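okkk here we go again. third time trying to get the zinc ion bound version out, last two times i messed up the smiles copy paste (missing a bracket lol). double checked this time i swear
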Amino acid sequence: MIKSMIRFILLIVITLTGSGSWIQPAIFRDEPAIATAVVDPFITAQTIAMRPDYVTDLTYQDWDRYTIQIQLDPAALQLSGNLTVRLTNRTTVDFDTIWFHLYPNHPDFGGRLDVTSARIDDIPVSSRTLHNDTLIGLQTPHPIAPGQSTTVTMTFTARTPRNASRKSFGAYNLEAGVWSIASFYPMLARYIEGIGWDTRPIVSRGDFTVSAIALYDVTVEAPVDWQLVTSGSQLEQHILADGRQRVRFVSGPQREFYLAALQGLVATSADVDGTRVISYVQANDPDAGARSLAIATTALRIFNQRFGAYPYAEFEIIQAALTQFYGMEYPGVVLIEQRLYQRNDHLLETTIAHEIGHQWWYGLVGNDAQGEAWLDEGLASYSQILYYEMIDNLTQAQAELDAFRAAYRRLRERGGDAPLATPPSELGNGRYVPVVYAKGALFFHALRQQIGEAAFNDFLQGYVTAARYREIAGPDLLRAAEEACACTLDAMFHNWVITAEPVTIP
Ligand SMILES: [Zn+2]
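finally!!
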């Protein structure tokens, strides 16, 4: 996400202690074997969602699997459907409750998501909710032992607001021809070994979703005059008798499944390294489609080279009414604030580069956005600089860097500095953006200066290779950087991430 720069102001002094690290270090252990044979029918269907060279990623792990069927009623702003999740207990403890996030029940969404029935292994189960219905816990009919798989089935209904982006989350809203229905389904919470289920209340500041990779097979029924855009690829479409369509989408290993229905937008597309890139823009600005497509294809190509391959067959970018923020990332889809397309400055280009950076930092390499937001936001922000460097616009690369320096300097002058590991919940009073984005980006610039260009490039590639499809924490990033430079970075990490030492601004 990119927030408005207005939030850089209004800083006050707050002293913070401790690390915000909530997720235990997870990577560089028990690397799963990469299977080569794709024989499972569920997996076979998913292959169209991957670039051909990355089809084997589907069997990288025995992913949890969602099968969702929903019916959309855009006129009533409602959807209803059912969901089946086949999940495996990958922990060392029995599950007696399985928790799901119901994100749309958070007040910021301005809508609703209600579970109307629930079964586990075909047995009706009781449930309870937490934090104003933003979490639902299903009591298992029998303990789910470590290594055991189970099947959860739910029926649910949801509704979104309309024209609400000025007061609520623009990605769950119908406005300007885009019915964006982010996080519309019960989403499995993460279980952290040694800690338990992630049942924390949602913090409004920053991104909401904290989830693990899964495979999705989603069938959507909707009126035929609505264009469906999702995190997956379209497997089949049937036109029904009553002016409706039934479209089935399958995904690669994705961190969540995004869905939007569009009306009146115009699509332009291009191919990048085997990925179909599609830009949807409002019909009143014919140049906007070509311009945003050119930026998106360039960013994807550059980041493929710099970070490692984006493995999916599709990527979509949608002009949307976000109003309170510039851009929002989902797996395989990004939303860009509509007004940026009319500007004559670099904000559209910068925002697209940032959100596409998130396809690696958040999408492929997961982290606790509600606890250590700097891990994805810092690196997505630094990706803006890498993008401009790689298209040889060194002036703009310098301008981006200078903006982060200025924001962080102002934060320090006001006594608002904080460790990068500070959870967003503790970064009130206008400190979230300058700490997580500006100081976060500057950390990566300092790291690059300290370990040198070659080691920094090795770090970026090695980090993605080791951490893709996983969820990492700060110490995992430290370890990846130390492996790349064959050096010790404890002091730097301590000063930037764990404490708020007055570091030299790079
Ligand atoms: Zn972001």
